[in-house]
Amino acid sequence: MDELIKLYHMEKIEIRPRFQYSSPLPPEKVLQALEEALSRENAPINGLVIDHHVYLRIPHEDQHFWSPQLALEVEAAEEGSQINGLFGPRESVWLMYIFFYALMAFLSVIVMIMGFSQLNLGLSARILWALPVLLALFVLAYLTARAGQKLGHDEMHLLYDFFRGAVKS
Predict the structure, then answer these.
(1) N or C: which end of the chain has fewer CB within 10 A?
(2) What keywords does the record list, in alphabetical order (predicted)?
(3) Residue 137 CA to its chain's centroid (Å)
(4) Residue 78 shares a structural domain with residue 160
(5) Could you read off the pLDDT of 37-64 as tens digits, one per residue?
(6) Which long-range contacts (C-beta less than 8 Å, at least 24 apart) are formed by 102-110?
(7) Residues 105, 37 within the same domain
(8) In Å, how far from its chain's centre is CA 129?
(9) What's the CATH code of the domain at 162?
């Protein structure tokens, strides 16, 4: 239970929560168990097993914009398997936020170069007033990402519970 509290503690600043899980089963058996769980007729989760990677997603008809996905990497350990999990948004959402953050950073650099050059030349540097606006947009994007993460919280539990149920020994 402490593991779940640590894993799902949303007050911690963590964009893509990670976890590690040890299983006494060898990697082949873990992958086979996950593949069997995914192939069940009424499986609540969709996914793929490719080599030693597993990708778990909410079914398309139940997804919303903020639905998370779970990427698992299964590795051999001294006794059984070591499974590394990474929760994250869908690729399109992740790419959109990375693009927006990069754009805000690029615009901030351009505004600073222009503004401080004008200031150094003794000209009016009104363009520097764009920096607080860009910072506000950055903070707004971060807050929407955190709100989206909270909206996908229950689905994180669903993905994690499906994974734990499949690999239970």
Answers:
(1) N
(2) Membrane, Transmembrane, Transmembrane helix
(3) 21
(4) yes
(5) 999 988 899 999 999 999 999 998 988 9
(6) 104/134, 104/137, 104/138, 104/141, 107/134, 108/134, 108/135
(7) no
(8) 33
(9) 3.30.310.80
